[in-house]
Amino acid sequence: MKWIVSLILTLLAAQIAAADNMPSIQNIPLNDINGKPTSLKDYAGKVVLLVNVASQCGFTPQYKGLEALYEKYKSQGLVIIGVPCNDFGGQEPGSADEIKKFCTEKYNVAFPLMAKVHVIGSEAHPLYAALTGKESPFPGAIKWNFTKFVIGRDGKVVQRFESKITPEAPELVQTVETALAAK
Q1: Distances, alpha carbon 35 to alpha carbons 32, 39, 73, 137, 164, in Å
Q2: Catalytically annotated residues
Q3: Integer Cα distance of 136 and 109 in angstroms
Q4: Has residue 52 been placed in a domain?
Q5: In this structure, is residue 9 part of a structural domain?
Q6: pLDDT, position 23
Q7: DSSP H/E element including 107
Q8: Distances in whole angstroms, Cα of residue 61 to Cα of each of 55, 56, 92, 142, 149
Q9: What CATH number is associated with residue 111?
Q10: pLDDT of residue 1
């Protein structure tokens, strides 16, 4: 029995060490919606809610909740980042300008938007490959638009929420509040 406990503790320690050695997702290059190079490093020290978004999806009304969450918590260090994606049902076919116009005119989005990327398959952007890969704390392919990742001030993924979890959902709000409280 002692050896089983010892083995479990050794395996757990190895997993923790492997996770600590993962390259930071903050260093993965992105382009913003205007094509300007950026990365999550620009948001270091903030809590990031990263969301793959689409303007013609049944979940698109979540933009309203995302903007409300951003407005409520941005002064405490929350940044929401929308990452347009056309991987699911062709629900984000627009150009960068069309996406910006839609988000600002229909939902008054003030949070940052990135350039459209792939989030699944062999063409997945390296950030999404890292967020969903086997080394991720929450591995597994993204199933649809509006999947959400909460990233702590330290640049590590805190939690993942599937599309059906709205920005107003108590579990998402609590996760954001807890991440914001961690200094």
Answers
A1: 5, 12, 27, 30, 30
A2: 57
A3: 29
A4: yes
A5: no
A6: 55
A7: helix 96-107
A8: 9, 10, 14, 19, 18
A9: 3.40.30.10
A10: 52
